[in-house]
Specification:
Elements: H1 4-7, E1 12-13, H2 15-21, H3 24-36, H4 42-58, E2 63-67, E3 79-81, E4 83-86, E5 90-93, H5 97-101, E6 102-103, H6 115-118, E7 123-127, E8 133-136, E9 139-148, H7 157-177, E10 186-200, H8 201-204, H9 208-213, H10 238-253, E11 258-263, E12 269-274, E13 277-278, H11 279-299, E14 302-305, E15 318-327, H12 340-359, H13 361-366, E16 389-390, H14 393-403, E17 407-408, E18 414-415, E19 439-441, E20 446-452, H15 458-480, H16 485-500, H17 512-520, H18 529-532, H19 539-547, H20 553-607, H21 614-644, H22 650-677, H23 689-693
The structure holds adenosine-5'-diphosphate and magnesium ion.
Length: about 700
């Protein structure tokens, strides 16, 4: 293999390649349009397209595609060949500037949440020059935004780009107030840590539930789960190591800086963390990472599970969104500085985040809600459904001293005046030991831990960027008009701490007492997706997104619709899968097992009438009784699925799926799992939890 530095980014049309292959003036134009999002003129686009095509063909590409992220949560591609027929039955390789800048895929098979009813069926894709083009599977992929004919966002990238613009706009107002004249733009940065499970392909192929729904719908607890904690950071198995090596290499080629890979808490569970990047690129890269993980796992005879909760009783998988704000001059605005002024600026940005998380806790909870993630959040597993911020004792101590005009520090005991005093240094490693917090300050960034493993990181970062932009807007409004800047700054920070300190919580987020305390503080505890979704339409949230031009009200309503529809559809598929498994495999297996027990008892009796047949008879009775319960509960589930059929209101439908269908699913699972525990292994139609979790050796 070549060295990492040779491989890294070798399949990316990045700055270096552009500098080599584009005329100086065109290169400068591209750089400019990357910086301020201005559209490239058609002459320049033609030059870029040609250079891109030549480069891609040299690398073996034959096709190109606009690569986009519709609201399904996965990426979409429509491949077109570079080939153009010319006279004499010959072909040439062509790729025009127009084809680079804009595409028109048929949008009708992607979810639009009703946007297409009012607008045209066609959608169009538009080149996003801020994210580099790359080659994957011999296809030149051009990252694009995806919009309706009327300009409504039909994807996850468009609002993310808009939210980055919003925080840049408002953040720059603050930056100017602090006199940072060298700074011309700010961006948010993200490093998403990705959790996943690997299981053997052969056992996966025998589980309908995993294939249809991504999670196990049945499964009795294995004798050994994660209780010994021997998997976490344990030795990586050779097969997994080979997978990780290939994954790293493929990601490096695409310019994804995959860095750390280790085992997670549950057996078969692992994590990948890249080095952070600009949010937009981090989002693209995370999509690529998820795609490659699944593809490469298959090559190694394994399947990568990205579902939030593939197995009951063992940890689910999340995605930790490490988030910060950075100036174009390389200053991390969430890192305490060296001078009083830098510290004041740090405190102000910190307060902007506190206020944003408190004011928009509903949106932060909502943006990570899904049927899959409901199994983690609010279900006694990391992290809780209540949004709170962990700051660590040191930082909370400082904020509390500022709030109360009280002395801080053991030595000098002096009052802290923002903008005058240097904050005491707080050692970074004391800050991140609380893994139960959904939103933790980790020294120079915040780690939002509620994301589900299968989710695009775009949605949560749209909310974060926009909510913080709103805090900054309000701060700038106050400070820009202030006569005495330093006093106004101190008062503002004090005021924000007083108003929003209820969101700070450094304790154990899993503790039942915290839920009571959170309720007393007036924090929201939104347990399930249908609880969250109505908050999309709260006037303050519509106001937030439309003010910052991130989502129009129409776009919000579309997303409201899509989230609800998706929730109901997922539960519907899960319910049908369960019923299929029960009627077609599980009940016939139970029946065969009881027959074999009865046959055994009969044969034994034939041998000698007073022979002991307790095992056979007791077990057969038990199986029959459980079978009867399974039948009854499967029928209940069928009724529940029938019942919801006629509900037309999406919110009502989602609630009924949760209250009727999901409840019936859980009841059914309970007896089926018990049945599994007392059925002979060779009769049970599916690989057990033990076989699944420990399948990769
Ligand atoms: P851990 O959380 O395991 O202690 P680190 O804190 O080193 O690990 O980093 C976790 C993730 O946070 C990595 O993806 C890293 O690149 C990312 N990260 C580090 N600094 C920043 C930053 N300023 N902005 C966004 N992400 C960051
Ligand atoms: Mg971390």
């Amino acid at each position: 293999m070549n060295t990492v530095t040779e491989v890294f980014g070798s399949m990316v049309f990045n700055d270096d390649v552009m500098r080599q292959r584009l005329p100086k003036e065109v290169f400068r134009q591209v750089q400019r349009s990357m910086k301020d999002g201005r559209r490239l003129d058609s002459a320049a686009a033609t030059v870029v397209a040609n250079a891109m095509k030549d480069w891609a063909i040299e690398k073996g590409a034959t096709h190109f595609t606009h690569w986009f992220q519709p609201m399904t949560g996965i990426t979409a591609e429509k491949h077109d060949s570079f080939l153009s027929p010319i006279e004499g039955g010959r072909v040439i390789m062509e790729f025009s500037g127009k084809e680079l800048i804009q595409g028109e895929p048929d949008a009708s098979s992607f979810p639009s949440g009703g946007l297409r009813a009012t607008f045209e069926a066609r959608g169009y894709t538009a080149w996003d020059p801020t994210s580099y083009a790359f080659i994957k599977d011999d296809v030149l992929c051009i990252p694009t935004a995806f919009c309706s004919y009327g300009g409504e966002a039909l994807d996850k990238k468009t609002p993310l780009l808009r939210s980055m613009e919003a925080i840049n706009r408002q953040g720059m107002r603050i930056i100017k107030l602090f006199g940072n004249d060298d700074v011309t733009s700010i961006k948010t940065t993200v490093g998403p840590e990705q959790e996943y499970f690997l299981i053997d392909k052969a056992v996966y192929d025998r589980r309908k539930d995993l294939q249809y729904t991504g999670r196990t719908l049945f499964g009795a607890k294995p004798p050994k789960g994660q209780e010994l904690e021997d998997h976490y950071f344990g030795a990586i198995k050779p097969r997994v190591a080979a997978f990780m090596k290939e994954l790293d290499e493929e990601l490096w080629k695409l310019g994804v800086m995959a860095k750390t890979e280790h085992n997670e808490a549950a057996p078969g569970q692992h994590e990948l963390a890249p080095i952070y990047n600009t949010t937009n690129i981090a989002a693209d890269h995370n999509q690529l990472t998820m795609e490659l993980m699944q593809k490469i796992a298959r090559k190694h005879g394994m399947v990568c599970l990205l579902h939030e909760k593939p197995f009951a009783g063992v940890n689910g998988s999340g995605k930790h969104n490490n988030w910060s704000i950075c100036t174009n001059t390389g200053v991390n605005l969430l890192e305490p500085g060296e001078t009083p002024y830098e510290n004041a600026q740090f405190l102000l940005f910190l307060c902007a985040v506190l206020q944003a998380v408190d004011d928009y806790q509903d949106m932060l909870r909502l943006c990570v809600a899904s049927a899959g993630n409901d199994h983690r959040l609010g279900a006694g597993e990391a992290p809780p459904a209540v949004v709170s911020v962990f700051l660590g004792d040191e930082l909370e101590g400082i904020l509390s001293a500022i709030e109360n005009d009280a002395p801080y520090g053991s030595k000098e005991k002096e009052l802290i005046k923002v903008g005058v005093h240097v904050l005491p240094k707080f050692p970074r490693d004391t800050t991140d030991r609380n893994r139960t917090s959904p939103f933790a300050f980790t020294g120079n960034k915040f780690e939002f831990r509620m994301l589900g493993s299968s989710q695009s990181i775009s949605g949560p970062n749209v909310v974060l960027n926009t909510a913080v932009a709103e805090s900054l807007r309000q701060f700038a409004d106050v400070l820009e008009g202030a006569e005495d800047f330093e006093k106004a700054l101190h008062d503002l920070i004090q005021d924000v701490i007083r108003k929003h300190k209820r969101i700070i919580f450094n304790g154990n987020g899993y503790d039942a007492a915290w839920l009571q305390e959170a309720e007393r503080r007036g924090l929201l505890n939104l347990v399930s997706t249908p609880d969250c979704v109505p908050y999309y339409l709260a006037p303050k949230n519509i106001e937030l997104f439309s003010r910052h031009k991130v989502y129009s009200e129409t776009e919000i309503r579309a997303r409201y619709q899509i989230k609800l529809d998706n929730y109901s559809k997922v539960l519907h598929i899960e319910a049908l899968t369960m019923l299929n498994m029960v009627w077609k495999d599980i009940l016939p297996a139970a029946s065969a097992y009881s027959k074999s027990l009865a046959d055994a008892a009969l044969s034994k009796k034939a041998l000698s009438p007073d022979i002991d047949c307790r095992f056979e008879t007791e077990q057969a009775k038990k199986i029959s009784a459980l079978t009867a319960s399974v039948v009854a509960r499967a029928q209940d589930l069928e009724y529940a699925v029938q019942d919801v059929k006629n509900i037309t209101d999406s919110l009502k439908l989602a609630r009924c799926y949760r209250d009727e269908v999901f409840t019936a699913m859980n009841d059914l699972r309970l007896v089926v799992d018990e049945l599994e525990s007392c059925t002979a292994s060779r009769f049970w139609p599916y690989p057990s939890y033990g076989e699944l979790l420990f399948s990769v050796r």
